[in-house]
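Hi there,

I know you've been waiting on this one. I reran it after we fixed the sequence typo, so this is the corrected version. Both the input and the resulting structure follow.
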Amino acid sequence: MSKIEVDQITQQSGSTLTVGGGACKTATVDATTVTLGRSGGTVSLASGATQSGFGRTGTVDWQTSSIKTSTFTAANGEGYFCNTTSGAFTMNLPAGSAGAIVSVQDYNNTFDSNNLTISPNGSEKINGGAGAVLLSTEGEGATLVYIDGTVGWRSIQDNAFADVGSNFISATGGTISEVGDFKVHTFTGPGTFTVCTTAVSASNNILDYVVVGGGGAASLSGGDAAGGGGGGGFRYFLNTTCAPTACAPGAPLNGYGSPSPSGTQITATATSFPVTVGAGGAGSANSPSGPYGTSGSNTIFSTVTSAGGGFGAVPLGPCSQAGKPGGSGGGGGGGGGTNNAGGTGNQPPVTPSQGNNGGNSAQTPPDHAAGGGGGAMAVGFAGRTTPSPANSGAGGAGAGLPSAFGTSGQNCGSFYYFSGGGGGGQSSPIPLGGGAGGVGGGTPAAHAPGAATANQGCGGGAGRNSASPLPGAAGGSGIVIIRYKFQ
């Protein structure tokens, strides 16, 4: 092969100089065009050599060997990774010259907690304005080019890229919390569960979830005791990667303690899943024109729908109604009328069952005690016939969740409870109002009915006053809780 070694090339007037062949060490030639190398070859600078006059191509040389952790002055043509984990600091721009370029990038997604300030040199401008700019978004980065004295440094690119590489699911939506190796997304209202990336292992893409329908309301007592509202439907799925005894919902109907998953499996894909949270039923108006409560609304996540709880029965009179069906049925009306039966639960039917029937009322005068609404774990209690301050029919029990699964619902020890039925009212011998659904359902609460708490999916309690009827209480809204392994 041929080899060219030269100490110096001196350009004179002429046409073309090609360096790539020949045997002289010093070349003085006439040339207006100088070509280095050959097609398909490589031109390399020797170790320690520098180049000049070639210009830039709109990019920077990233200084990966020098991560910035404190205030510094940038140089033209360089890009910097800035780590503000230990505190905010400033990047001072160099003196501007036309075409100068500087880039910066959030090193570890901390600009939102500890900002980076970009400060111009002297009175120079940034994007036409005097003073510094602040990078305060997680994962933010920017590239600035100096144009002239009018605009100064112009940002030609701004980004906020904070996605973190993972072998597990990453997702957004709802209120997010972390419990051990799991992330929990809680929706107390409508929203969207968006899966950004899926897990490498197929088993880790199977979602744990709880979907609770809105609880049913109680109706106007109307001359006798009304039935309690039914709890909203309770449906869940437990991934087999999670030990049931440690994190399964405490709902015997759905196989608590069994190693097998229950219900409908939902597998995460990189898409958006709309979430609908059902409202609780509205309590009845205290007027002859509005004696009925309403049933709760459905809660929906992906292909799973939990039905709203049925409203409690209206007892005697021309507007009487039996307890309505739903996720769990409303309680039957008190007294000697014909609408003493509780409503049917698990409507529409799903496997495993999402709820239970409402309780029947007492039919032996003078104990006009109405039935409690059904709940996720039990049928609503029937109205009791033994004279006692506890004559009201209590609602069916709600389904329990370990506190590691979610942080909403009525707390009882290390568990939270959902989908309890509302207590039925009682007109005689002691007028009592039914408590709202919750742990073990409702319990009597003096004359007034108990209203259900939001986002528990419990039924409302029924009322009865010795002097005049009382409207029934509203049911509680539902909830959606989603859990997956994230590390």
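Quick highlight: Residues 244-247 form the longest helix (4 residues).

Best,
R. S.
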